[in-house]
Write a structure and sequence with these properties.
The protein is 60% helix and 0% strand. 22% of the residues are buried. By secondary structure, the chain is mostly helical.
Length: 189
């Protein structure tokens, strides 16, 4: 096991590397893209739920999961509570409208959601960051198992790499977000 001093030195060397900078940049870019795409897709889903009545199904409902049986669903995060038939119609509408809005490319399968694909790309960037840094920290390459611990470690690693570059995570995210631009309202109609 490394002493605290040796650990700090090893981490400092790892943070200064070109690979660390590239991994952090990739993670930040994929995070901004995932947030952007998720925001647009969620707007499309909310519009569909406003226009198309979808209700919780008594057979699917479990106590404490955000609703009551036969209650109208207005939050896209609760659509899993709908019956299979109406849910399939909702998914088909999501597919059609995300394609019409230019959020879903023609070569993306009907069963894929552009927001979930973007979020998975962000997760893969997190895995790459863990694979690089965790051995330096004396941890398994997969990183911590608890989500809260993973988020804290990502925040610390990103902050350490960016600090050596003279930037903060908020500054880096803001510049990436500015490059992406504002969410176009017309894209979700």
């Amino acid at each position: 096991m490394l002493s605290e001093r040796d650990l700090r030195r090893a981490l400092n060397r790892a943070c200064k590397g070109e690979r660390a900078s590239r991994l952090v940049g990739d993670l930040l870019a994929k995070t901004v893209l995932a947030d952007f795409v998720t925001e647009l897709v969620t707007d499309v889903e909310r519009q569909i739920l406003a226009d198309y009545p979808l209700y919780t199904d008594y057979g699917q409902f479990r106590s404490g999961e955000g609703g009551k049986p036969d209650e109208r669903i207005l939050d896209p995060k609760l659509t899993y509570l709908a019956a299979n038939g109406p849910m399939l119609a909702y998914c088909n509408l999501c597919d059609l409208r995300t394609r019409a809005a230019g959020l879903k490319p023609d070569d993306m399968g009907d069963e894929y959601c552009p927001a979930l694909v973007a979020q998975h790309e962000r997760t893969k960037a997190e895995w790459a960051l863990f694979e690089y840094f965790c051995p330096v920290l004396g941890m398994e390459k997969t990183g911590p198992s608890r989500l809260e611990d993973r988020a804290k470690l990502i925040e610390l690693l990103v902050g350490a790499v960016l600090a050596l570059e003279g930037r903060t995570a908020d500054e880096a995210r803001a510049s990436l977000r500015a490059a992406v631009g504002p969410v176009p309202a017309a894209a979700v109609r």
